[in-house]
Amino acid sequence: DAKTTQPTSMDCAEGRAANLPCNHSTISGNEYVYWYRQIHSQGPQYIIHGLKNNETNEMASLIITEDRKSSTLILPHATLRDTAVYYCTPHNAGNMLTFGGGTRLMVKP
Amino acid sequence: DTGVSQDPRHKITKRGQNVTFRCDPISEHNRLYWYRQTLGQGPEFLTYFQNEAQLEKSRLLSDRFSAERPKGSFSTLEIQRTEQGDSAMYLCASSRLAGVLQETQYFGPGTRLLVL
Known about the structure:
The complex is a heterodimer.
Chain A: E1 9-13, E2 18-23, E3 32-38, E4 45-50, E5 55-56, E6 61-64, E7 70-75, E8 84-91, E9 103-108
Parallel strand pairs in A: 1-9
Antiparallel strand pairs in A: 2-7, 3-4, 3-8, 5-6, 6-7, 8-9
Chain B: E1 5-7, E2 10-13, E3 19-24, E4 31-37, E5 44-50, E6 53-56, E7 65-68, E8 75-79, E9 88-95, E10 106-107, E11 111-115
């Protein structure tokens, strides 16, 4: 299983961009990078995923380095409701998601 | 609300009792996953079904854990002879293939188990 490394915690001011890094240097060529977040006591919420190209949806943007060894999730205008634990996980179809410890993002007023 | 539902949301039981949790996936999803999450950790994979077939169960924590998906729709996870170490959040996720390699899993709200 590929392993990921994420900062344990990060702070962000409300209204500013939150940039959450993830190192996945052992990801295999056919694995996508998936990002989920988990707000206290709830199930993980899917945010975005990508393979090689940068991706954007209504929730966030995902920047993947050319060598695919790392990625950054960007929340362009963080709000207090974005306070959560954010997980990145490599994944391909038919396999389990492998979660590490994630990054605890605290958005402050 | 992702459309995946789990019941009950909370369960308190005494050590040694059996418990059963139910998961109802998103209706068109043919894959269903169970995960367990202990405090301060990320979710940990337990088992997975494609339709009614259980394709991976080697990660179930012991032979006290079993799961079924009899008609390829809802699934149940049973823990027999519960132990205090079984206290955790049990999460269900469902998915369907979108392309050869893409598969997004959507999680339910989880069942929080406390074993006294």
